[in-house]
Amino acid sequence: MVLELLEGAGDVANSPFIVPVAGCAMIACIVAVTSFGATRKRQIESEERLAAIARGVPVPPTMEEIALTRNQPTPNALRRRGNIRLAGIILVAGAVAVALFFLLLAIILGERRVLAGVACALIPAGIGAGLLIDAKIQTRELEGSGDKPPTA
Description:
Layout: H1 2-13, H2 18-55, H3 63-69, H4 75-109, H5 122-144
């Protein structure tokens, strides 16, 4: 019985699906650990604030509270806008790189049908352009609400 199970395990290890399944499992674990870490950090910060309140110690303001009292955008809004802009730039640059790759490959091979691969670059280019437009809209919203985004 045990011998049959061990022989069956060898088939699983030789399966062509082991790499994609392991990759997906790794990504799922990374997401789960990151989410758990962020939740735990917020829980610890909350417990520290409650302990300070219980002792009667004045609670220091959070970064969001400081930004709101100074009529500035919160660090989370600035970070989110920066991340969106960065993702858009990376996607557009990646799309240009993919298009150039297929263009050069078509020139080197002298095969015109390879140019169909340039169409693959349209997907990341469209997503990147959308993210850049979203970052621009967020910047206008921050400027329109009286907040001043940093210049650096």
